[in-house]
Amino acid sequence: MENPTTSKVVLLACGSFNPITNMHLRMFELARDHLEDTGQYSVIKGIISPVGDAYKKKGLIEASHRVEMARLATESSEWITVDSWESQQSDWVETSKVIRHHYEELLAREHNRDDVDTIKYTKKRRIERVQFITGKEVSFPKPKHGPQLMLLCGADVLESFGIPNLWKQEDIAEIVGRYGLVCVTRSGGDPHKFINQSDDLWKYRKNIHVVHEWVTNDISATHVRRALRRGRSVRYLLPESVVRYVQEHSLYSAESEQKNADVVLAPFQKYSDASTSG
Amino acid sequence: MASCRVPLVLLACGSFNPITNQHMRLFELARDHMHSTGRFEVVGGIVSPVSDGYGKQGLVPAKHRISMAKLALQSSNWVTVDEWESQQPDWTETVVTMRYHHGRILKEYEQSAGRHSDASEKFASPSSPFPQLKLLCGADFLSSFKIPGLWLDDHVEELVQRFGLVCVSRGSLQPERAVHESDTLFRHRRNVFLVREWVRNETSATEIRRALRRDQSVKYLIPDSVIEYIHQHELYTEDSERRNEGTALRPLIKQAHQPIKSLDD
Which GO terms describe its molecular function (chain A) (predicted)? Predict the structure, then answer.
């Protein structure tokens, strides 16, 4: 229900979705309930953005399958959709760029709707980005109208901010500073502690929404792939239509799990190249 | 052809208040496990919701619980819902339910064994071993044997000796410990099959009911058709959760004058 005093929010989840599981879908539901429960937000849309094949994660099967399975999984949802832009890029795309892309699309739609001068808008955005890159303290002003875009993730993603060469510090700051993070806790791990221990995250802690999943629901895609390799049932862990798709296309075997086994993950490749080239 | 495999049917008794994806997972996990022992071929699964006479707090009418289970299992080609237990006038002991279904299954077997030519019968060959019925349950069920007044000694004995248990571990509960701590279970441990559920999934019907009361989403935890049914019939509210409040569970009353299991086995 849309209340004029609430901010509109769109949730964006990036990830392998290899394959999508009921747990991924639960994450959206939990996040929406949590945000709307504060009385401050109205969640209008959810976007699933599967990563491109160029990510080179071990066991990552073709994007076309992963996107299709996500589409099947969200058919019955009134608000969660799948976007294939990221998966169609030939190079791996940093999460911050994916967020930017979707945010710009959202704003463009809002501005078209409101008949605001779009030229003025893009000029303003360019100025903001220059300020940000030159390191000036920016307070990330948000347009008065237009929905907020928040990155939806599990606590493991939040904690991955600490892994060297996986994320650029500027990107992390932009994601939490300009956009916002909704972090659904999985069993184990303490996101509040992690936020406390990072100055960047602490500075923008008001933009980080931690959703406690009181009922442990640990259906990881890794587990699903393992069960499939061993000929075990994965029914009721994934939507029916996805189980059928996996069977029809014989996805996830010992062989598929070896894909990219000897290849370096794209972000590591990219950032370590950058650091060695000075 | 695995000609020596024993045809096996799995029976799950419980409130199913409401049925959840987790309940249905139990069947899938149990089937995979029993197949992998090389000794069994799982030919059927039965969900048997308890009757209203059970008197458990928050239990909604059996007709709803049956309807929801039917909706949930529409897409399953081997698990069905059975209404016999829910239709009995009083709460029925688990062992009595098992005797009923086992008798039914044996009769079917005898009838199909008479018709050798019908290859589509699940008990095709007259030379295949007699079908077995085992009780499918979670680890918390095993621990319930210890609760005074809930089970009769003889029944536990019959359950594990004559039928057998397939018990799926849940969370941190260790069913091995329950087997170890009970002489009866230990004695018949070869008929107690323990299935490890590696995915920690603590979604229970209790949690589902709680979420529903608070208007929180339960999508992807129970089938869409069941969610729709719940909303249509306005089940699971604060009021429904108070049903049977203060009433003792029927088994405790019915079995009160019988010799009960002592705590030190």
Answer: ATP binding; nicotinamide-nucleotide adenylyltransferase activity; nicotinate-nucleotide adenylyltransferase activity
Q: Tens digit of pLDDT for each residue in A64-82?
A: 999 999 999 999 999 999 9
* Residue A213 counted as domain residue: yes
> Is residue A242 included in any domain, yes or no?
yes
- pLDDT attached to residue A187: 63
Contacts of B220 in chain A (CB under 8 A): 22, 25-26, 29, 239
Interface test mutation site (partner A, options B22, B212, B220, B226, max chain A beta carbons within 10 A)? B220
**What local confidence, expressed as pLDDT, does residue A189 receive?**
66
A220 in B contact zone (CB under 8 Å): yes
Residue A183's domain spans which residues?
7-277
- Report the 10 Å Cβ neighbour count for A264: 12
CA neighbours within 13 Å on the CB side: how many for B12?
A: 28
B4 backbone dihedrals φ, ψ, rounded to 5°? -95, 5
Better-scored residue on pLDDT, A58 or B12: B12
Residue A143 has pLDDT above 60, yes or no: no
Based on C-alpha coordinates, what's the Rg of chain A? 19
**A26 vs B171: CB contact, 8 Å cut-off?**
no
Q: What is the ipTM of this complex?
A: 0.80
- As given in the structure block, the two tokens for residue B140 are 């918390």
- Does A24 reside within a domain? yes
Residue B228's nearest CA partner among B212, B244, B239 is B212
Mean pLDDT of B139-152: 84
Confidence of residue A109 (pLDDT cuts 50, 70, 90): confident
Whole-angstrom distance, CA of residue A146 vs CA of residue B55: 53
Touching check for B38 and chain A: CB below 8 Å?
A: no
- Quote the number of domains for chain A: 1
Answer whether residue A2 is part of any domain. no
Q: How many Cα atoms are found within 13 Å in the side-chain-facing hemisphere of B40?
A: 22
> Shortest Cα distance from B52 to chain A (angstroms)?
27
**CATH number of domain containing A51:** 3.40.50.620
